C-alpha cells in the first residue's frame, strides 16, 4: 500500500519526493533543478541544506494540490 504524505518525514529527500509523486528519480532531480533555475517560479520546491537537497513535506503537498506547479505559474500575467 502506498504511503500518505503524513507518513513521510518533514523534510524529504528528492528520491522520497519522487517516490511519493510516482515518478523516476531522474525526473525528481529534473524538477528540483527547474525550481532552482527559475528561482522558485516552477518545479519541485527544494531547500539546500549543506550539499543536500531536501523537499519540505508541506511544500510537496502544495505542489501536488496545485497540479505540479508552483504559485507563480498562476500569477496574473495579463498585459498592463
Helix content: 25-40%
Q: What is the global morphology?
A: globular
Number of strands: 3
Using the 3D structure, state the CATH architecture: Orthogonal Bundle
User: SS-based structural class?
Assistant: alpha+beta
In whole angstroms, how far apart are the ends?
50 Å
Instruction: State the helix count.
Output: 3
Question: What is the string of SSEs from the N terminus onward?
Answer: EHHEEH
Poorly predicted runs of 5 or more residues: 73-80
Protein described:
This protein has a 3-stranded antiparallel β-sheet. Helix 1 (14-21) crosses helix 2 (25-37). It is an alpha+beta fold and 80 residues long. It is built from 3 helices and 3 strands. It has one domain (5-68): Arc Repressor Mutant, subunit A. Residues 73-80 have low confidence and may be disordered. Strand 2 (47-49) and strand 3 (52-56) form a beta hairpin. Helices cover 38% and strands 14% of the residues.
Amino acid at each position: 500500500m502506498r504511503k500518505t504524505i503524513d507518513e513521510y518525514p518533514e523534510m524529504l529527500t528528492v528520491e522520497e519526493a519522487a517516490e511519493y509523486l510516482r515518478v523516476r528519480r531522474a525526473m525528481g532531480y529534473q524538477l528540483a533543478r527547474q525550481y532552482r533555475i527559475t528561482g522558485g517560479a516552477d518545479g519541485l520546491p527544494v531547500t539546500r541544506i549543506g550539499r543536500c537537497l531536501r523537499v519540505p513535506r508541506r511544500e510537496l503537498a502544495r505542489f501536488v494540490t496545485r497540479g505540479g506547479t508552483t504559485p507563480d505559474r498562476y500569477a496574473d500575467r495579463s498585459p498592463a
